[in-house]
Specification:
One of its GO terms (biological process) is NADP+ catabolic process. Residues 39-170 form the Nudix hydrolase domain. Keywords: Hydrolase, Magnesium, Metal-binding. InterPro entries: NAD-cap_RNA_hydrolase_NudC, Nudix_hydrolase, NUDIX_hydrolase-like_dom_sf, NUDIX_hydrolase_dom. With 177 residues, the chain is an alpha+beta fold. The chain has two domains: 1-39, no CATH class; 41-176, Nucleoside Triphosphate Pyrophosphohydrolase. Helix content is 17%, strand content 34%. It has helices at 3-6, 82-94, 160-172, and strands spanning 27-28, 35-36, 41-49, 55-60, 69-70, 73-75, 98-113, 116-129, 141-147. The chain has a four-stranded mixed sheet with strand order 6-3-8-7, with helices on both faces. It is elongated, with a radius of gyration of 19 Å. The termini are far apart.
Length: 177
């Protein structure tokens, strides 16, 4: 179920939402005129390189896609830029600081969580680890691995957006395969 399908009553006045409008965006209340847009949330993630050209992969601890490969990242908080949120998520998940953070690509994703299918815009960056030896499996990370770009199996990646970003990264860095 998507967020627009959950709101059956106006969150301002409680007026029932006409059945014909459930699931559509924006929510427009016929009772009080309130309008609410259901926009995607934003996530940031980073392909982190170390000096030998390998990138850091994480094994996801939790669903969705528990046990699959990902890269450190997560949902941005209110008031954060994409870069700030990505840096924070990397610190929380693997304990690394980044430099030379550069945008790679974005792609839409659907993220299932507790019976709701959240639309997400995933923003992918590349960066260099300040001190790669400090990398550790922390929040929601089962394990970490360093791999060459050519040794990252597409079929083991957690999300379609991650596969798209990996292809874009490989195209931009053909010398690192």
């Amino acid at each position: 179920m998507r967020p627009a399908e959950i709101f059956r009553f106006c969150p301002r006045c409680g007026h029932p939402r006409p059945d014909a409008n459930v699931g559509h965006t924006p929510l427009q209340c016929p009772g009080c005129g309130f309008t609410f847009f259901f926009n995607p949330t934003v996530a940031g993630a980073a392909f982190i390189f170390r000096s030998d050209g390998q990138i850091l992969l994480i094994r996801r601890e939790k669903d969705p896609a528990a046990g699959k490969f990902g890269v450190p990242g997560g949902f941005l908080d209110f008031g954060e830029s994409a870069e700030e949120g990505t840096r924070r998520e990397v610190r929380e998940e693997v304990g690394l600081e980044l430099h030379n953070l550069r945008f790679v690509t974005s792609f839409p994703n659907l993220y299932p969580y507790r019976e709701v299918l959240y639309p997400v815009v995933d923003l992918y960056f590349s960066a260099e680890a300040v001190d790669p030896e400090r990398a550790a499996a922390l929040d929601a990370v089962r394990s970490i691995e360093w791999r060459r770009l050519g040794d990252v199996p597409d079929e083991e990646m957690a999300f379609d957006s991650l596969r798209v970003a990996l292809r874009a990264l490989r195209a931009a860095n053909p010398d690192l395969r």
